[in-house]
Amino acid sequence: LLCMFIIFQLMQHSWLVSPLTLDPAKLLEEFPRWLEKLSARHQGSIIIIIDSIDQIQQAEKQMKWLIDPLPVNVRVIVSVNVETCPQAWRLWPTLHLDPLNCRDVKSLISAECNSANVKLTKEQEKKLERHCRSATTCNALYVTLLGKTIARVGNTGNIDETLQQCFQCQDTVSLYRLVLRSIQESLRSEKEKGLLRELLCVIGVSHNGVSESELMELYPELSSAVLASLVHSLHKMCLLTYGCGLLKFRHLQAWEMVRLEYMGEGENVISACRQKLVEYFTMQLSRDRVTWRSADELPWLFQQQGDKQKLHKCLLNLFVSQNLYKRGHFAELLSYWQLVGKDKSSMAAEYFDSLKEYEKSCEGEESMICLADLYETLGRFLKDLGLLSQAVAPLQRSLEIRETALDPDHPRVAQSLHQLAGVYVQWKKFGNAEQLYKQALEISENAYGAEHPRVARELDALATLYQKQNKYEQSEQLRKKSFKIRQKAARRKGSLCGFALLRQRALQLEELTLGKDTPDNARTLNELGVLYYLQNNLETAELFLKRSLEMRERVLGPEHPDCAQSLNNLAALYNEKKHYEKAEELYEKALDIRRRALAPDHPSLAYTVKHLAVLYKKMGKLDKAVPLYELAVEIRQKSFGPKHPSVATALVNLAVLYCQMKKQIEALPLYERALKIYEDSFGHMHPRVGETLKNLAVLSYEGGDFAKAAELYKRAMEIKEAETLLIGGKATSRHSSSGDTFSLTSALSPSAFLEHGQR
């Protein structure tokens, strides 16, 4: 498990090396070689720091890769207790951390006492010095806690009496017990003492701690004033701390003390507290609230209870598993499955069956988008497990759904293509992978522009693929292109790397716009509007986009292409706010300007055509959408040539529209032409060929040609089975001739809507 964690951490800092298998059986064997590859491609040193390594079960076995000669630029630093350090590790260069000396002890205690204006006598200082000489009483935690205990008594209490009580505590756990009892004595009522006990026990049995709001819900009788007072005392005395907004024990010794003090009666107290948390988080799941908290706590609590049946059921909650996996808890998720006694293949089949069952209840665009995410997560999980053949089907299904529910050119479709290509690369099917990466690159360039980091990612992926095929010249060209994009992105002060930078950039831009009307200031206003839009501050975004449009119309004239950009951005904003009539008017104005000012195959013209067409379709104005979908076909033909897959996608979009208008005769030749392009581009067994065959089958059936419909449908099913049988099941497809393209959802890709302009 530790190797898995180290791999995830290192992968966050390097994209140069392909991911390592996360199959536990092979991991320990392959990890040293993977680390060697990483070190060879990483500029500079790699330092891995592992604290308390002797606390890991079977540490010497799990960490045997440490014994092997490490790569020259890799250093590993571990901390370990002298008594439990394995013999083989004692030969390494070692730094011994000695116990605190008398001066250190005095300094620590004085610092704590000074913070509370407490003065110790010379005699008291000598007693403390004599006491803090053993191994258990001169460590930093014990001395700090001792100082805080004395400071807590202050000038109003009997320091000598407190010292006598402390001197009876010969280790940190017993000193913590004294601290807890002093906090208990300071409470006003038995009710508050009971709440303190409950609070500490619940935190103790949780996986990662409990938040204050969760404690308030768990114990309605707990007032915010009492909770604040308790937390303040416990935090001040080093019992509790905060981590990610959760209250947890600051030190292991504090938790050990609570276990001895409150849970020494047996398993009853622990079981009752666990059950309380189980009921709380189960109630959240029943309300379809799968938060990171419920995903973290519930499986772990079931594991602690030894309830394999409930753990199994919890893992089959697709959103729980997705939440754990997406946050990098792969090893934890895998350990849960091992506990319920399922091997990798059984686990894959169960997940796929659960997804197919869930798909039956999915209706509407949002639920289908969510379903696509689940399929993608499953595919990536199976890929990480090394189940490449079984990973293809869910990733392919995710791709199909996104093409249907979003748009074949949506950035999320590029994401699906990228993930699927990654499986084929590991599977050594380089031809399939290359075609998918190229499609992802094309979509990313159209959606984000040629200099976006997403484009750099696709270029890197293609470069790595070519390198694996010994096509070094092609690989080097793509690497250089990617490097230039990343360099520009790093230099760009307004790079969208976080809300803090966005706000900082917004303030800079705001200052710039206080000057007179100029094209540069108008562009700055437009960028400011885009930044506010990306922060979901739509009202402020609208204000700046309007100001940009007004300034451009005054300075450049209302027919200038820059005015079309402002109109387009305002239209996208109104579309997001569901003000469709306003969006329609502005898109139409932008289209009129761009038609007259730009070349027929210009990307900006294609952009406006596409989004106005989608808006018409959303509003039910299908007759007005038809000429725009036809224009989209023309633009793609001029841009890519008549036999490009992108043209086939545009033809399918137009065919779908005709089918919705009950014009099957017009749709038929479009589907047939798209089928020919897909077959020539991808081969006769590609999923897009299968979906187009199925749409043609539906048209033939509706036209009364049942024999042809049966033949086409049979071919479509053969293609479908070739994919889905890889995982041992058949996924229901929701493609049909009655609908293939829905509106582009702005929430999923805001930057695909708003245009920043050239700088």
UniProtKB/TrEMBL annotation:
> Which residues belong to any copy of the Nephrocystin-3 TPR-repeats region domain?
274-512
Keywords of this entry: Cell projection, Cilium, Coiled coil, Repeat, Signal, TPR repeat, Wnt signaling pathway
Signal peptide (UniProt feature, chain positions)? 1-19
Give the record's GO biological process terms. Answer: convergent extension; determination of left/right symmetry; kidney morphogenesis; Wnt signaling pathway
Give any Pfam family that matches.
Answer: TPR_12
Record localization:
Cell projection, Cilium
TPR repeat start and end residues: 414-447, 522-555, 564-597, 606-639, 648-681, 690-723
Ranges for the Nephrocystin 3 helical domain? Answer: 103-262
InterPro entries found in the cross-reference section: NPHP3_hel (IPR056883), P-loop_NTPase (IPR027417), Sel1-like (IPR006597), TPR-like_helical_dom_sf (IPR011990), TPR_NPHP3 (IPR056885), TPR_rpt (IPR019734)
For this UniProt entry, what's an example GO CC term? Answer: ciliary inversin compartment
Source domain of life is: Eukaryota
Name this polypeptide is given:
Nephrocystin-3
Specify the species. Answer: Todus mexicanus (Puerto Rican tody)
**Record lineage:** Eukaryota, Metazoa, Chordata, Craniata, Vertebrata
